[in-house]
Automatic annotation (TrEMBL):
Gene3D superfamilies: Acetylglutamate kinase-like. This is CUB and sushi domain-containing protein 1-like. It comes from Platysternon megacephalum. GO terms for molecular function: glutamate-5-semialdehyde dehydrogenase activity. Transmembrane segments: none annotated.
Length: 61
C-alpha cells in the first residue's frame, strides 16, 4: 500500500528533528557543531538557487 505524499512528508518532517538531535548529541562529544541544509531537487536545477546554495555551503564550512 502506497503512502500518500503529504503523509510521507509529514512523517519525514517529524523524524527530522529527532535525527538532528541525535546528530548534535553525537557530534558534541567531539566538539563538532552539527547543522543541516534542506534542499530539493529543484534547488539544483535553477542557476540562481545553485549560487545561493554554494554561498550557504561555503559560509557554513
Amino acid at each position: 500500500m502506497a503512502i500518500p505524499v503529504l503523509e510521507a512528508r509529514a512523517c519525514a518532517a517529524a523524524g527530522q528533528s529527532g535525527l538532528m538531535a541525535l546528530y548534535e548529541a553525537m557530534f558534541t562529544q567531539y566538539s563538532i557543531c552539527a547543522a543541516q541544509i534542506l534542499v530539493t531537487n529543484l534547488d539544483f536545477h535553477d542557476e540562481q538557487k545553485r549560487w545561493n546554495l554554494n554561498g550557504t555551503f561555503t559560509s557554513g564550512i
